[in-house]
Automatic annotation (TrEMBL):
Keywords: FAD, Flavoprotein, NAD, Oxidoreductase
Organism of derivation: Streptomyces xantholiticus
Gene Ontology molecular function terms on file: oxidoreductase activity
Assigned protein family: Belongs to the NADH dehydrogenase family.
Top-level EC class: oxidoreductase
Domain FAD/NAD(P)-binding, residue spans: 19-347
InterPro entries: FAD/NAD-bd_sf, FAD/NAD-binding_dom, NDH-2
Name of the molecule in the record: NAD(P)/FAD-dependent oxidoreductase
Length: 491
């Protein structure tokens, strides 16, 4: 293990530098670092403070736009925000925090160069810690899930799923085997939260439109199935709007199975708890999230669900100089009448918590009083495909086009940076004027496959774009389900 150089007071005669380490580059990590670099601008310019952001990717993904990216309404590049551009006054380290020893004020980090160097992980010291690694998919021990499940948490998975769906339509159009055709045109989504419902609705819209360009496929040939273990979908928008969403989906010939579980998906056959069996080449897992594994490798207090115990000031309970928010933090909900209630781990709270979190860190450094986080849940909006949606905001219930318009307006206002707002708005405008894109770029997942075939004279070791007709791919769309933004995305 290599210990990174500590810049705090390394030069004789210079004042000690306060290093703020931000673990995570998602909602909480990026927004907190962004506010800190603004609030601490004088200290950063004088060299009295330093902000280090450790993130596994060089960008923040705006996850509410993943369904539209999968449907082709938004370019993948505009769903993400580059950290180095937004956080110009911060030091960005692309890597993963594997452990945190807060007693010693150190974090063990593996970077992209760790394996190349062969010197082991890097140990980064800090004075203040903001731990916001987000969440990962909450999977269950379902036979076959790790082999055939598809996640829907990253932009890579969203685009991979789009390519996969169109590729299955290509397979169904060209095969002479009815069994292969039926399996290729059967799409199973597990999880009735925002991720599952919005992804299914957007992709069904896209596939139904795309089918008009196939000479031997009709929209009714495609079979879409939504599996939800509870008795309703989209609980955040309320029971009435949830029932409307079910009716809307079923009116589009989508098979919604409530109070049903996935028992197995071995051999590409989805077996449900009601006894149904569906041969399928597409199984998307969006059934919940759990805290990132790094939380279990810290010496910070966790609750029974594995989240960090925090107070209303967003400081980790029982320790000093440690802060958290978002999915990783169990923050008391001061607006709730229920004793012991906690803020839901969703984007609505996460973005608002970052403002209080950054202000309190600055206040603690400057010896000023800190404030408590309190936000009453305002409601939620959800898209059910193009021009369709549901909303329950400030007690008002909307459905259809008005709800869809509210969904777009809200998330356009929330996506970070003016650059991304303008690009997304331009793409929405152009998509309203021109036809949908129906191109599948699945070969992007193996960009060297064609050259390997030409250079080696045989089938590339990592597969090629025609491999899907014979078996499961090794690309992103066929790997283990590893994430789902199943938390509510409200206003």
């Amino acid at each position: 293990m290599v210990k990174a150089a500590n810049t705090r007071g390394t030069t004789p005669g210079t004042p000690p530098r306060t290093r703020i380490l931000v673990v995570g580059g998602g909602y909480v990590g990026m927004y907190t670092a962004l506010r800190l670099q603004r609030k601490l601008k004088p200290e950063l310019e004088r060299g009295e403070a330093e902000i280090v952001v450790v993130a596994p990717d060089p960008y923040m993904t705006y996850q509410p736009f993943l369904p539209e990216a999968a449907a082709g309404s938004i370019s993948p590049r505009h769903v993400v925000v580059p950290l180095r551009r937004v956080l110009g006054r911060c030091t960005i380290v692309i890597g993963e925090a594997k452990a945190v020893d807060h007693a010693k004020r150190t974090a063990t980090v593996t970077t992209l160069a760790t394996e190349e160097e062969g010197a082991g992980a890097v140990e980064i010291t800090y004075d203040e810690l903001v731990i916001a690694p987000g969440s990962i998919s909450r999977t269950l021990p379902v036979p076959g899930l790790a082999d055939f499940g598809i996640g829907f948490k990253t932009v890579e998975e969203a685009i991979g799923l789009r390519n996969h769906v169109i590729e299955q339509m290509d397979i169904a159009s060209s095969t002479r085997d009815p069994a292969i055709r039926d399996a290729a045109l059967t799409f199973v989504f597990v999880g009735g939260g925002y991720a599952g419902v919005e992804a299914l609705a957007e992709l069904e819209d896209m596939a139904r439109y795309t089918s008009r360009y196939y000479h031997n496929l009709k929209p009714e040939d495609l079979k879409w199935i939504l599996v939800e273990a509870q008795g309703r979908i989209l609980p955040e928008v309320g029971e009435q709007m949830g029932r409307y969403a079910v009716r809307e989906l079923r009116a589009r010939n989508i098979d919604v199975r409530l109070e049903t579980r996935l028992d197995s998906c071995e051999d590409r056959v989805a077996v449900l708890s009601d006894g149904s069996r569906f041969p399928t080449r597409t199984l998307v897992w969006t059934a919940g999230v759990k805290p990132a594994p790094v939380l279990a490798t810290t010496d910070l207090p966790l609750n029974e669900r594995g989240r960090l115990k925090c107070n209303a000031r967003l400081a980790v309970e029982g320790v000093e100089h440690a802060w958290a928010a978002g999915d990783a933090a169990a923050v008391p909900d001061l607006t709730s009448d229920e004793p012991g209630a906690e803020c839901a781990p969703n984007a609505q709270h996460a973005v608002r918590q970052t403002k209080v979190l950054a202000e309190n860190i600055v206040a603690s450094l400057r010896g000023a009083p800190m404030q408590e986080y309190a936000h009453k849940y305002a409601g939620s909006v959800a898209s059910l495909g193009l021009h369709k949606g549901v909303a329950h905001v400030y007690g008002r219930k909307l459905k259809g086009y008005p709800a869809w318009l509210m969904h777009r307006a809200y998330h356009l206002s929330r996506v970070p940076t003016l650059n991304r707002k303008a690009r997304v708005l331009a793409e929405w405008t152009l998509s309203g004027l021109f036809k949908r894109e129906i191109v599948s770029l699945g070969s992007l997942e193996h960009p060297r496959a064609e050259f390997e075939l030409a250079a080696g004279g045989g089938r590339p070791a990592n597969g090629s774009k025609d491999q899907s007709a014979a078996g499961p791919k090794e690309g992103p769309e066929e790997q283990s389900a590893d994430g789902s933004p199943d938390g509510p995305k409200g206003t």
